[in-house]
Task: structure prediction
Amino acid sequence: MNDASSSAPKAALTVDVRENGVAVITYDVPGATMNTLRKDFVEEFGAVFDGIAKNDAVRAAVLISGKKDSFIAGADIDMLSEIHGVETAETMCHEGHAAIAKLAKSTKPIVAAIHGAALGGGFEVALACQGRILSHSRKTMLGLPEVKLGLLPGLSGLQRLAMLTSVQVALDFGLTGKNMRPKKALKLGVADDVVPRPILEKVAIAYALSLANGKKREKKSRIDRDELMQFALEKNPVGRSVLFKKARETLDKKTGGHYPSPYRIVDVLETYAQSGFEKSQAVEARAFAELLDSDVSSNLMGLFFATTAMKKDTGVDDETIEPRTIDKVGVLGAGLMGAGITSVSIDKGIEVRLKDRDAASVGRGIKYVCGILDTKVKRRHMTKPERAEVLGRLSTTVDYSGMKKVELVIEAVFEDLDLKRTVLKDVEGSCAPGVIFASNTSSIPISKIAEASDKPENVVGMHYFSPVHKMPLLEVIRTEHTAPEVVATAVQIGKRQGKTVIVVRDGVGFYTSRILGPYMNEASYMLSEGIKVDDLDRAMTKFGWPVGPMTLADEVGLDVAAHIGPIMVAEFGERMTPPPTVGSLVEDGRKGRKNEKGFYLYGKAAKKRGKGKHVDETVYAALKLATPDYKTSPIPIEEIQERCNLQFINEALHCWGEGLLRSPRDGDIGAIFGLGFPPYLGGPFRHVDVLGASHVLGRIEYYQERFGARWAPAPALADMAKAGTRFYD
Ligand code: NAI
Result:
């Protein structure tokens, strides 16, 4: 036995040379639950693999992880965020290339034995090995997710994946950052074998030895017809240039040009295909360094750090507060939201008792839940026995039977204050004493509902977003009476349901609905100034919003917006006043997508007009406006974007100034995960930091002069501009 790391007690790599001449190299970062590539990986990998090359007793090697469920989960992102300056990052990247080359060029075969996540740098290390054996496990996944942080793979993983498979496959995995499961890896020829975990090391050792004995690595890639076409495309220069041109065009459509990293990924692979591996490494190092130095990457990393920190946040400032243990949840209302909440709960191991008024409504709820699970089975994210197990956690009722032991009830009945108060009283009378009552209301202040309660300390808001199984945010709302322990319990349940949770203080519209108000109103004002519905939407999607304000209004429901509008005006005054025309939409029977009558055409009328979305041209008359007829928009696109965004940001700053939020971080996460604020900007608060508070204030004052009171700047913004402060360091 030979321990190459004995002189460095804190080394992550240890080497054990077996009698058969195979060195088993174990990567196990001390003190961490998960393996990542640390700053010193270049020296450590360099030293160990130099040692392997020189050691005559070693014929082959296996690289394996010492952690339970991670091979190497990627580069240490803290370390990346501390690198400053393009030159430093470029040098670091070149050093990484040199260290990885020791594996890639090793004359002694090195086989990666992978169980758990091999992501980013971890996958790149594995790709540089001469073979890869994977465990047959749900935990095992490969991938190059750097694009999600605004970066690109910096250890030539793109090119090595292209070598093993095709440029097309490397583009696909590099640009989406999606995971590659063992079965797919085997099909693509990335994995040499997939075996049960207990024999992973043994099989990898045997495979390494066989390679050392001269066995050639089989190319297992079994490609289908479409992929064959792609290969044909890649094989000649004209085909290749078509491939890259198409990739860039798709990116223009998908990202609006706001995210530089996917374009740089295309550059790297194009250089690799046209000019070879070495030249592509130079392009890669420069691109990596420039991306790491960019605002977009720092914003996206900020989001990563925020969501990581939020996983550990209990939602209350007092660290001694413990959440209650909840095994069973009651859900009232099996409609769109209730069924959605049920599905994410049972899926994550929480038992649910679902209640609605009658069997038919319960039936609709069950159908909805089954639909979600069926899709998971179809997409192979769940097996049929797992589906049965998940459904086994659901029971239903049309009265309060079976609710005696329920410790938390989430209500999602109709949006009606009296009804919410009635069910609250029913719950307090029927469930366990001390039961927590959580309301999923989208607009009623929680304290108003809690007025009906004998124990307002147990009443809290849990505001989910539709569709619940897809939307990542949960907004927990605390009233002045809600007990911290109840807040912490709601947060913990939300996290168990897979949500990112922010906690906000109670008030009309909470945080998310409130900041959307002035944004939507501003779009409506521009509509009454003569801008076309689709031009408004296009302007905002071009800026990076997932949908435009008019589409969003149709989705949320024009009746819902019309209902909330006056409540907002009553609470916040003039700055929430919509243009006078908006009310006429509901009078015209337009509720949006739900009744297929809104700003856009739906159903048969839409189909008649062919592919894509079509504005319902009769909407202008319903708004008592002339149908716009212009070639050049009377309001420039930049102004449309700025006016909507500034209203959104200004309201977020009002919320901050009023103490609604616990931190700017929560405000940024709520805006991005709940409403779709463009992630590349890092959230409204980060965006103010980048633009500068005085610049933002100046622009708002400019519009205030043009349009009056609805543009009054938030006091917190004026204070920050005066003091020259920022939200983030
Ligand atoms: P929905 O109309 O689809 O479902 C409401 C359900 O409640 C119906 O199945 C109805 O039969 C049931 N119900 C009525 N009275 C009941 C009672 N006494 N006991 C048990 N069930 C009863 O409505 P949706 O869209 O699911 O909304 C529910 C709540 O969630 C509302 O407060 C809404 O404001 C809120 N919300 C809705 C969002 C959305 O996008 N739809 C987003 C966030 C919150």
Remarks:
- The chain has 31 helices and 18 strands.
- Confidence is low (pLDDT under 50) at residues 1-9.
- The CA atoms of residues 69 and 207 lie 22 Å apart.
